[in-house]
Design a protein that fits this description.
About 50% of the residues lie in helices and about 15% in strands. It has about 180 residues and is an alpha+beta fold. The longest helix is centred in the middle third of the chain and has 16 residues.
């Protein structure tokens, strides 16, 4: 079974972005239909199912999951790669240690959330400014997620990539990924 041009283009976008909301994926499919493969389906779920049939033999998968009610995300994951190694690929050894400590702190926190101020105890030798940028970058890469609090301090929790790509690691920390995660 060969992938059509439209699905190949969608897979390339997933490879570049790692994760997308359903709305982002629909927009990508519309653009692919306009520019690359006229008539391309914009049904994200059916496209993901077709891609997953091809990706299965490579131990890759696109997983769909719900982060909050009404917000569905899709992420391309490698089923055989070491989960923590994937997270550490773009960061140095010291940052990886901080990331692990932040994950552990969130795992132990009430409702798996903590303010940036509470997490600063795990910044090791990073300056406060560098730590804040590091956490913001992890949020931008969807490893962590910012919550909108009623206070001035930034509230952090696990992001969608942590739940899908680090699920086993989180389970070892005593965190159960949300029950709404669905494989598509």
């Amino acid at each position: 079974m060969a992938l059509g041009t439209g699905l190949q283009a969608l897979l390339q976008v997933f490879a570049q972005r790692q994760a997308m909301t359903k709305k982002e994926a629909e927009e990508v499919l519309k653009e692919i239909g306009r520019e690359v493969a006229p008539g391309q389906s914009t049904d994200v779920e059916s496209c993901v199912r077709r891609l997953n049939k091809m990706l299965k033999c490579m131990d890759l998968e696109i997983r769909g999951y719900h982060v909050r009610p009404g917000e569905q995300m899709f992420a391309l994951i490698n089923l055989t790669n070491d989960d923590v190694a994937k997270a550490e690929g773009k960061i140095n050894e010291k940052e990886a240690a901080v990331f692990r400590d932040v994950l552990q702190a969130l795992a132990e926190a009430d409702f798996h959330t903590a303010t940036l101020g509470e997490l600063e105890a795990h910044r090791k030798k990073m300056t406060a400014a560098k730590f804040e940028k590091f956490v913001t970058d992890l949020c931008d890469d969807r490893w962590l997620s910012k919550k909108t609090p009623d206070c001035d301090d930034l509230v952090i929790t696990f992001g969608p990539r942590a739940y899908t790509e680090l699920a086993d690691h989180l389970r070892h920390m005593g965190v159960d990924p949300p029950q709404q995660i669905t494989l598509i």
